[in-house]
Design a protein that fits this description.
Helix content: over 70%
Strand content: under 5%
Structural class: mainly alpha
Number of helices: 3
Shape: elongated
Radius of gyration: 23 Å
Order of helices and strands: HHH
Length: about 90
């Protein structure tokens, strides 16, 4: 439960800070950016660049999922410890 809310807050902070400038970009601006990238990297390097970008995004997504699962596992571990200590008190 807490992990979901932490994940939600984390995603909002990251997405708001990274993509804060995107709403101001329109069609003409995106075309200019695309042409600049095309001129800088060339038509032959563009697919390689996109492939590398896709791989890095996939790795980032995997790392984020691993991080979230680790937080969830730690949260469950912490919530189970008080229950175990209560069981020990009732046995004594």
């Amino acid at each position: 439960m807490i992990a979901n809310s932490l994940s939600s807050i984390y995603n909002k902070i990251i997405m708001n800070s990274i993509f804060a400038f995107l709403p101001s970009l329109g069609g003409p601006e995106l075309v200019i950016i695309f042409v600049a990238v095309l001129v800088l990297f060339g038509a032959k390097k563009l697919p390689e660049f996109a492939k590398g970008l896709g791989k890095s995004m996939g790795e980032f997504k995997k790392a984020r999922q691993d991080f979230e699962s680790e937080i969830t596992r730690a949260e469950e571990e912490v919530s189970l410890k008080p229950e175990k200590s209560e069981e020990k008190e009732t046995k004594a």
